[in-house]
Amino acid sequence: MLRDESACNTYNYGDSDYWDARYLNESAFDWYQRYDALRPFLRKYIPISSRLLMVGCGNAVISEDMVKDGYESIMNVDISCVAIEMMRRKYEHVPQLEYVQMDVRDMGFFLDNSFDGVIDKGTLDALMCGTNGPTSASQMLGEVSRILKPGGVYMLITYGDPKARMTHINRPTYNWKIELYIIPRPGFQKPGGSTSSPKSYLSPVPITENGMLPADYVIEDPDSHFIYVCTKRGDNSDLSESLTVDI
């Protein structure tokens, strides 16, 4: 499976200059998975009435797709002023979407406990590939924990398996209850003879007490994406009742 060392290249993905230059020459692009693949997880854990934060929005269309599906309030932030200005113009007549240029390692613009959900599709991965990756990751995750309401959900979509990600997200200071899902990359074809059902991807993956996959757990697609659903514990935060909606 992929690790940060093997997935990163010589680009500094934590640097705004890299992203500004990239977005000047790139059309809309969604990292990893499109909304239709993520919808079952988002609708299960994040009600459409939630106040949401999309970290590292870039020029992706997932927020647009979520609004079309009924989501009412999505704040989008990115380190690139080029991306933010582009997206502001594109969605200036969509009141459910807001765009603000911001470094996710310092989101002091937002008050504590101000979001019901935070969605991260590749942003933690980008920071991990930048200079001082673990420090940047810790700064961002600390900010996510701070601005997330008790009972709120941080949904991380990443290429990092538990060995690469749990050490960063499974920390007592964040006080998160973590559930794990594993979905194949788009276009993956199951090998001949496989008996697993596509519905199995919609069930949480069993993890050990320290957050690792069981030793005998087999992942069909070695390039799968991992979805970590991190629910912030707090008074009256009942995962099974307050954060589950019908799909």
Whole-number average pLDDT?
Answer: 87
Question: What proportion strand?
Answer: 15-25%
Q: How many helices?
A: 9
Contiguous uncertain segments of 5+ residues: 236-247
Question: What does the largest sheet look like?
Answer: 7 strands, mixed
Overall number of strands: 7
Which shape, going by the Cα principal axes? globular
Question: Termini, distance in Å?
Answer: 31 Å
N to C succession of SSEs: HHHEHEHEEHHEHEEH
- Fraction of residues in helix: 25-40%
Structure description:
The protein has about 250 residues and is of the alpha/beta class. It has helices at about 5, 15-25, 35-45, 60-70, 80-90, 125-130, 135-145, 160-170, 240, and strands spanning about 50-55, 75-80, 95-100, 115-120, 150-160, 175-185, 225-230. Mean pLDDT is about 85; it is low at about 235-245.
In short:
With 247 residues, the chain is an alpha/beta fold. Helix content is 30%, strand content 20%.
